[in-house]
Amino acid sequence: MDRPRLVASDLDGTLLRSDGTLSDRTAEVLVAVEEAGIEVVFVTARPPRWLDSLADAVAGHGTVICGNGAFVYDVGTRTVLSANGFDEAVVRSLVSDVRAAVPDVAFAAERASGLWFESGFVHDPLHPIPADAVEAPIEQLAGEPVGKLLARSRSVPAAAFLERVSAIVGERASFAYSGAGGLAEINAVGVTKAVVLERWAAELGIGPQEVWAFGDMPNDLPMLTWAGVGWAVANAHPDVLAVADALCGANDEDGVALALEPLLEGQPRA
User: Which GO terms describe its molecular function (predicted)?
Assistant: First the structure.
């Protein structure tokens, strides 16, 4: 495999350990890769507000493509550099159709300014609801584009719910699943990790054949198939393992770091 000019990695389940932390070894390798002249960018389903706790680990790497491509975020300054949002009419149509099919569905919306959520929405227990979040029916959203629309049901089994929502969304938006139990993730049509990563790389004059991408879940598939080399960690979803160009160790075994270390051979180390 040719030496890449850009390394793009998912975070949860890929670069981060199961407890959500970045190992010292992986952090050191990422810094060394950048010092060797290879760009590093993180591409994650996380919203901007879930990246601040990782600022010390990732700030040196500049920007993060987050929300499955909904936002480009500078973690050093905690600034949303750009947003790829929904047309309000499309959001309202999707919400109406999903609610008709799943009456107990609860929605949340990630926007550049923060979180909007309905009272019945089940939050990730590892990430507290921010103080500036807005709690109100999703139908009252106005004035700011939605970067990523989230949906959950308490009554419909996770797999069945995701299948139902995906069918309802159809071609009106981009449907994704990043591994959170029963969480449907919906972006504007054409917004995926791959699309925004391609745009970001092109601004640097980097083509897909010069990119190594690492991931573990179905929402990583567009990025992995776009990149010159798509790597799956050993703990990846079967759909990812089936199409990856290369396999590395699991996230809890510093798999990404192990795959990158050969790039540093012959490089001076601090």
Answer: magnesium ion binding; phosphatase activity
The SS3 call for residue 98 is helix
Q: Is the pLDDT of residue 269 over 60?
A: no
DSSP letter for each residue of 163-232: HHHHHHHTTSEEEE--SSTT-EEEEETT--HHHHHHHHHHHTT--GGGEEEEE-SGGGHHHHHHSSEEEE
DSSP 130: P
For CATH 3.30.1240.10, the residue range(s) in the chain are 88-188
6-83+192-264: in CATH 3.40.50.1000: yes
Domain with CATH 3.40.50.1000 in the chain: 6-83+192-264
Per-residue pLDDT tens for 186-244? Answer: 999 999 999 999 999 999 999 999 999 999 999 999 999 999 999 999 999 999 999 99
- Tell me the average pLDDT across 153-167: 94
Q: Which helix (H) or strand (E) holds 5?
A: none
| Nearest-angstrom CA–CA distance, 79 and 12 | 21
**pLDDT (tens digit, 9 = 90+) per residue, 81-99?**
999 999 889 999 999 999 9
Predicted local distance difference test score (pLDDT) of residue 99: 96
Contacts of 202 by beta carbon, 8 Å cutoff, 6+ apart: none
The CATH code that applies to domain 88-188 is 3.30.1240.10
Q: Sheet containing 114-117: give its strands across.
A: 134-135, 114-117, 106-111, 148-152, 184-188, 173-176
CB proximity list for 218: less than 8 A, separation 6 or greater: 176, 177, 178, 237, 239, 240
Question: What mean pLDDT comes out for the span 116-135?
Answer: 89
Q: pLDDT > 90: what percent of the chain?
A: 76
- Pair of tokens at residue 140: 């009252």
